[in-house]
Automatic annotation (TrEMBL):
This is Ferrochelatase. It holds the Pfam family Ferrochelatase. Belongs to the ferrochelatase family. Catalyzes the ferrous insertion into protoporphyrin IX. It catalyses: Fe-coproporphyrin III + 2 H(+) = coproporphyrin III + Fe(2+); heme b + 2 H(+) = protoporphyrin IX + Fe(2+). GO terms for molecular function: ferrochelatase activity; metal ion binding. PROSITE patterns: FERROCHELATASE (PS00534). Fe(2+) binds at H204, E282. It comes from Sphingomonas xanthus. It is found in: Cytoplasm. InterPro entries: Ferrochelatase, Ferrochelatase_AS, Ferrochelatase_C, Ferrochelatase_N. Pathway: Porphyrin-containing compound metabolism; protoheme biosynthesis; protoheme from protoporphyrin-IX: step 1/1. The keyword Iron applies.
């Protein structure tokens, strides 16, 4: 018999933690400032020595950008809050219903709330001894995937009694992912009231330097785009959005491509963002509002933004199957 103060040994319990990038708590400048300060202080995101970067961040960026970004967030904010957080919460609930009682599913944001530390604390308190950390980025990038892993490892490093840990690998070229994208994109294309000349696949950009440093992100995006383009049934292009700062970023830039299309005779387009597992500021506002304006102002006539996989049937089905594959061998499996 253990002494009376010895913790009870729980039955093995599996936890699944969905992790996405992060978002402010509210669409106002103060909340956006807090969020950007945390996000843009991550050395995985800004790969400039902190001594050089922090004065620029604190002295310039955090004085100007929060107000501008808050205005953009206000345009996409929903009753349930930020779209990114609301959709990730719905994905978590849908997966919980699929995976059943032996698994506890929760979600976290790498920056902002709910934090990775808090979510892992909740899972461990619920008796989780085996944890699958699932960063919801199809393409691996040090700025996103590795940073989510860093936060997970740090949260676990701080615990005396650590859960066993697995991580969901990137799924950019997984047949389950490509098939889910094709079903989703084709059904949205079929529901349009016009026939697009072109489908533009827009991925979040990165400084070009990260490609030369060995980050596989650019290659992963190219492969997702090629596999979708081969089977989606209309000509596709790839582009990279959301340029930040003065350095050279991956090209071609989404806004440049949108503005150039009409003079090339491409006046009817659909745009999709297969690097995002959930719609967010970057898809709803940057593509759906500003991208549309750029394209129409340049002479485009028809524009449609297609939704991300979000908590659609095919999106949840894909995550359910990717996750079950990683849980195999952990008893009791769902
Ligand atoms: C140098 C800065 C940035 C890098 C590198 C970067 C990489 C990167 N980001 C995503 C996904 C998302 N980014 C989002 C917002 C966002 N991104 C940056 C900057 C960099 N991103 C900023 C400053 C912002 C905030 C908004 C703004 O002020 O413009 C979001 C949306 C969050 C939301 O709340 O909706 C996502 C998602 C990826 C996938 C990526 C590298 C591959
Ligand atoms: Fe970003
Ligand atoms: Fe953006």
């Amino acid at each position: 018999m253990p002494p009376p103060d010895h913790p009870a040994i729980p039955a093995p319990r599996i936890g699944v933690l969905l992790i996405n990038l992060g978002t402010p708590d509210a669409p106002d400048a103060a909340a956006v400032r807090r969020y950007l300060a945390e996000f843009l202080s991550d050395p995985r995101v800004i790969e400039i020595p902190s001594l050089l970067w922090q004065p620029i961040l604190r002295g310039i960026i955090l004085r100007t950008r929060p107000r501008k970004s808050a205005h953009a967030y206000a345009q996409v904010w929903q009753d349930e809050g930020s779209p990114l957080a609301a959709i990730t919460a719905r994905q978590s609930r849908a997966l919980q219903a699929r995976l059943g009682e032996t698994v506890t599913v929760d979600w976290a944001m790498r920056y902002g709330n709910p934090s990775v530390v808090a979510a892992i604390g909740r899972l461990v308190d619920a008796g989780v001894t085996r944890l699958l950390a699932a960063p919801l980025y199809p393409q691996y990038c040090a700025a996103t995937t590795a940073s989510a892993m860093d936060a997970t490892f740090a949260a676990i490093a701080a615990r005396r009694w650590q859960p066993a840990l697995r991580t969901l690998p990137p799924y950019y070229d997984d047949p389950l992912h490509i098939q889910a994208l094709l079903v989703s994109l084709k059904s949205q294309l079929a529901a349009l009231d016009f026939a697009p000349d072109r489908l533009l696949l827009s991925f979040h950009g990165m400084p070009e330097r990260t490609l030369r440093l060995g980050d596989p992100y650019h290659c992963h995006c190219q492969k997702t785009a090629r596999l979708v383009g081969e089977r989606v049934g209309l000509p596709t292009d790839i582009a990279f959005q959301s340029r930040f700062g003065r350095a050279k970023w991956l090209e071609p830039a989404t806004d440049t491509v949108l503005k150039a299309y009409p003079e090339q005779g491409v006046t009817k387009i659909a745009i999709a963002a297969p690097g995002f597992s959930a719609d967010c500021l970057e898809t709803i506002e940057e593509l759906g509002i500003r991208g549309r304006e750029d394209f129409l102002a340049a002479g485009g006539t028809h524009f449609a933004r297609l939704e991300c996989l979000n908590d659609s049937e095919q999106g949840i089905d894909m995550l359910d199957r990717l996750i079950r594959r990683e849980l195999a061998g952990w008893w009791p499996t769902p």
